[in-house]
Amino acid sequence: VVSSSASAPSIHDMSGLQQTTGQEKSEADSTLQPKPSSTVSPQLWIISAFVCTMVAVISYNAGLKSIPVVGQQLPRLLSDANLANYNGIVKPEMLLAVMGEVYDVSSGKDHYQKGSAYNVFVGRDASSMFATGKFHDLTPTAHRIDQLTDKQLLSVEHWRAFYRDRYPFIGNVYQADGSGYYDAHGQPTAYLLTLRQRIASAQKADIDSDHTTEDQRRCNTKWSQSAGGIVWCDEGLVPRMGDVSGDAPKQCRCYFKAYAKANSHALKVLEGCDPDSSKCKTKPKK
Asked: Of 23, 115, 195, 254, which is most buried by a Cβ count within 10 Å?
């Protein structure tokens, strides 16, 4: 536990300039003019694909909060074999990785120590298991998520956002066989860049289609007249009042942060809430 958690990619429309011949030219002359070829060169296709990929990646990263690096005493780049030692036994720290990003979950040892429910994640990158929930189906390729559906990818992004918000970020992990998200120099692999593009596209499609039910999008609330209450959304989403369609009654609903910012004219931040927080307190009625 994205977003993504995670922002939707920007789409830029590029319009070409078209020149037309003057009407004074005769039809006969026009027929003699060479017609442009409709065949696009392979080089142009490659350049176009590269540009589209980079736009999606840049847009995806732009929506993420900067990750504070702490735990400087620990290695910033680990191999999968080195990461396995940080299991709370061989080494006292308990580290886990999501999509190649390593986090120190030692402060939550009650949940991650040996015998606990989430101990299976410690000392490894088991990204796919965050989406599948198959904690006992540990395989050498558990770190790979390209086989997941778009909905499952968003679930992994959700958990990545969860750890980014709650635990110290340490660095990155690379797989010795080269199948991971980062290489031995700590640079993102083509595999990771492709997945980032998929996640960004899935986030945009999720917003555009609005396929989630009203109950799934509605804010969670707990309230009493004397004590006030709490309003919250899933990680990566923020509570807002209103609806961009203008047809629905004003009520608290959950949206991706980037979408909420882009439609701030219609989606209002709740009184007393942090615009970037997925949870906030409401004041009691006097």
From this structure: 195
pLDDT digits 0-9 by tens, 106-136: 999 999 999 988 999 999 999 999 988 888 8
pLDDT of residue 221: 81
Select the highest-mean-pLDDT range: 9-13, 58-62, 221-225.
221-225
- Mean pLDDT score, 32-43: 50
On the question of pLDDT at 246 being above 80, the answer is: no
Q: What does the alpha-carbon distance between residue 63 and residue 258 come to, in Å, rounded to a whole number?
A: 6
Structure tokens given for 220: 């969670």
Q: Give every strand in the sheet of 279-282, ordered side by side.
A: 220-224, 228-232, 279-282
Label residues 219-250 b or e (16+ Cβ within 10 Å = b): beeeeeeeeeeebbbebbbbbbbbbbeeeeee
| Residue 62 tokens, joined | 């732009």
Residue showing tokens 């696009």: 40
Q: Residue 7 corresponds to which tokens in the numbers above?
A: 């922002």
Where do we find the tokens 């011949």?
A: 21
Beta pairing, strands 252-256 & 220-224: unpaired
Please calculate the CA angle 71-74-75 and round it to the nearest 5 degrees: 130
- Length of the chain, in residues: 286
Report which of 276, 130, 99 is spatially closest to residue 199, judged by C-alpha positions.
99
Side-chain-side CA neighbours of 275 within 13 Å: the count stands at 10
